[in-house]
């Protein structure tokens, strides 16, 4: 018994509209969700308020990004204060699409993590290696370095969930094997022990993301250091319920 509450986040990415969000919310609100699992849905910015109003209160909502300061002349950005003002408690930061499609640096992600936590948001902080990095045998080096930029900006780890998402597994239908996921999660926990503290290493939730489905979730969830999932494609489908209940 680890005391780490199972955590399942959905990342809707840039998908959906009011109609489909309402339909998904109805399915989720009426489903039997394992009460021992914390559930968070990552909605597009423009639908944060709408998603919050449609989902039951036991289902949290997350923004998929935010900026590093509270307000100002930053056209197109949103702040943690605005996210909180919509009743939303979480933000996903450092997602691979932010890193690799929009060019966000480790430094910027660290600054965003610091500010979001200062404002009282929970942070789902994402890390993960690209295929060429895995093939070059530098997976650990990459994820440890990404984790350090995040860790240097965290004071209260109880508000942080670390999401290991190998880039080669995201949106590709190529889920990491349970062994591959467990191996990196274990290494990350060891890194936390050596670089943060044993207490944090034991309590921080490390979740896996990358083509998780209703079919792959149970075996992944049975791994010792897999404390939940960040789910993209499957979070838009009724199958998300099965993933939430992977531990049931
Ligand atoms: P996927 O996305 O489940 O569609 O691979 C995961 C993610 O990007 O968080």
Automatic annotation (TrEMBL):
It catalyses: D-glyceraldehyde 3-phosphate = dihydroxyacetone phosphate; dihydroxyacetone phosphate = methylglyoxal + phosphate. One of its GO terms (molecular function) is methylglyoxal synthase activity. GO terms for cellular component: cytosol. InterPro entries: Aldolase_TIM, TIM_sf, TrioseP_Isoase_bac/euk, Triosephosphate_isomerase, Triosephosphate_isomerase_AS. GO terms for biological process: gluconeogenesis; glyceraldehyde-3-phosphate biosynthetic process; glycerol catabolic process; glycolytic process. The keyword Metal-binding does not apply. The keyword Isomerase applies. PROSITE patterns: TIM_1, TIM_2. Pathway: Carbohydrate degradation; glycolysis; D-glyceraldehyde 3-phosphate from glycerone phosphate: step 1/1; Carbohydrate biosynthesis; gluconeogenesis. Its EC number is 5.3.1.1. Pfam families: TIM (PF00121). Keywords: Gluconeogenesis, Glycolysis, Isomerase, Lyase. SUPFAM superfamilies: Triosephosphate isomerase (TIM) (SSF51351). It is also responsible for the non-negligible production of methylglyoxal a reactive cytotoxic side-product that modifies and can alter proteins, DNA and lipids. Triosephosphate isomerase is an extremely efficient metabolic enzyme that catalyzes the interconversion between dihydroxyacetone phosphate (DHAP) and D-glyceraldehyde-3-phosphate (G3P) in glycolysis and gluconeogenesis. Belongs to the triosephosphate isomerase family. Homodimer. PANTHER family: TRIOSEPHOSPHATE ISOMERASE, TRIOSEPHOSPHATE ISOMERASE B. This is Triosephosphate isomerase. It comes from Danionella cerebrum.
């Amino acid at each position: 018994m680890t005391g780490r509450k199972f955590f399942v986040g959905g990342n809707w990415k840039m998908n959906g509209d009011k109609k489909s969000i309402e339909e998904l919310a109805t399915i989720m609100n009426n489903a039997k969700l394992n009460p021992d699992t914390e559930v968070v849905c990552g909605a597009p910015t423009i639908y944060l308020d709408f998603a919050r109003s449609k989902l039951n209160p036991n289902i949290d909502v997350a923004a998929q990004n935010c900026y590093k300061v509270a307000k100002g002349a930053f056209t197109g950005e949103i702040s943690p204060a605005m996210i909180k003002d919509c009743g939303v408690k979480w933000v996903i930061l450092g997602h691979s699409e932010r890193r690799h499609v929009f060019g966000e640096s480790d430094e910027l992600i660290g600054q965003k993590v610091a500010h979001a936590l200062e404002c009282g948001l929970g942070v789902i902080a994402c890390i993960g290696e690209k295929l060429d990095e895995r093939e070059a045998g530098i997976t650990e080096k990459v994820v440890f370095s990404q984790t350090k930029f995040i860790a240097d900006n965290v004071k209260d780890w109880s508000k942080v969930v670390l999401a290991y998402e190998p880039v080669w597994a995201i949106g590709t239908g190529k889920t990491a094997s349970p062994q591959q996921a467990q191996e990196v999660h274990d290494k990350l926990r060891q890194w936390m022990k050596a670089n943060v503290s044993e207490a944090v290493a034991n309590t921080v939730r490390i979740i896996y993301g990358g083509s998780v489905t209703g079919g792959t979730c149970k075996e992944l969830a049975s791994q010792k250091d897999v404390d939940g999932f960040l789910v993209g494609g499957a979070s838009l489908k009724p199958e998300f319920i099965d993933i939430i209940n992977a531990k049931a």
